[in-house]
Amino acid sequence: MQLPSAFKTKYQRLLGDEAPAFLAALNEQSLSGFRVNPLKDGLPQKTISQAKGKVPYVPTGYYGQVNGKSLDHVTGWVYSQEPSAMYVGEVVDPQPGERVLDLCAAPGGKSTHLISLMKDQGLLVANEIFRKRALILAENLERWGTRNTVVTNESPEKLEKQFPKFFDRILIDAPCSGEGMFRKEPAGIEYWNTDYPAECANRQQKIIASAIKMLKPGGILVYSTCTFAPEEDEQNASWILKNYSEMQMEEVKAYPGMDHGRPEWADGNPELAKAIRLFPHHIKGEGHFVAKFRYGTPVAEKPLRKKRRKKKHSNSYALTKDQQELFTNFQDSVIPNYQPTRLVLFGEQLYDLPAGISEIDDLNILRPGLHLGTFKKRRFEPSLALALALTPTEAKKTLELSEEQWRQYVHGDTITIDKELASGWYLLVCDKHSCGFGKLVQKTVKNFYPKGLRF
Ligand SMILES: C[S@@+](CC[C@H](N)C(=O)[O-])C[C@H]1O[C@@H](n2cnc3c(N)ncnc32)[C@H](O)[C@@H]1O
Question: Which residues are involved in binding S-adenosyl-L-methionine (predicted)?
Answer without folding.
Answer: 104-110, 128, 173
